tRNA-dihydrouridine synthase
Amino acid sequence: MATIDFSKTLYALAPLAGFTDLPFRSVVKKFGVDLTVSEMISSNALVHQSKKTYRMVEKSPLEDLYSIQLAGSDQEVMRKAVEYVNTLDDVSVIDLNCGCPAPKIVNNLQGSSLLTDLDKMGETIRTIKKHSLKPYTSVKIRIGFNEKNPIEIAKICEDNGADFIAVHGRTRAGRYKAPVDYDAIRDIKKAVSIPVIANGDIDSPEKAKWVLEHTGADGIMIGRAAVGRPWIFHQIKEGMEEVSPALIKAVVLEHFDQMIEHYENYGAIMFRKNLHSYSKAGFQGASAFRNLVNRMEDPKEMREVIEEFFSQDYISRPH
């Protein structure tokens, strides 16, 4: 099983509900991301043997550093969820979600609401660490719930057995809109001895370089900026400014084909949201294209339309 080399910068794909499924992760993996993370997995759903949830933890053979992210705070349920993950091959990390701001998660003392009960958060980390047979236990955190207390949160993670943490530099109250506090990530890095991965609004090679230098973090985690731009990790690692229309077309078609293989015909409907993102790369007639695919359900018809749309050259360079 692959081990994490923190002596060099780690590039990680953040978990995003509804986006970072197996087809998307396998596409991103080809562009040099080191660590991929499942969508957030409900520990309750896993323990209750939800077939949909079982499918959500499946991995691509390409994913040689793969993390499964669990949400929950009931210790018995979490233990059983961890024991199920133990049966899965080639999983390197079990990650605890302490960052999701969604009300339905927060109202059940899961996700970012664990930041309001640090004793419970610490207990949950210990439960994962105690029962996991995987090499690493990690935690995805924000820097507070309503108010910022980043160092206190990070030290709870460290003291209860986390091997590394990923820090989204906003509070729960800040959702995805507030400015990212990179100073708080820098302060965490100085305060703990475990590796720290920086997360939040990293959307270009220049921003990635600045965040790494400013925070001193051991890696960066990118989520929303990779949707519609799965090649962003290659751009960052290679310092590449632009990608060709031909590359975009090839990536979109491969992603589409993987969606159909994984979800069968329903994958075409699910892929609409991805096409919305991909079409923003600077092609003519993007709005009309989005309106067209919104009404499509037939995979063969959709693939033909994708081929035609992405065969054109840019009218403006993508950002």
Remarks:
- The domain at 10-238 is CATH 3.20.20.70 (TIM Barrel).
- The CA atoms of residues 13 and 222 lie 5 Å apart.
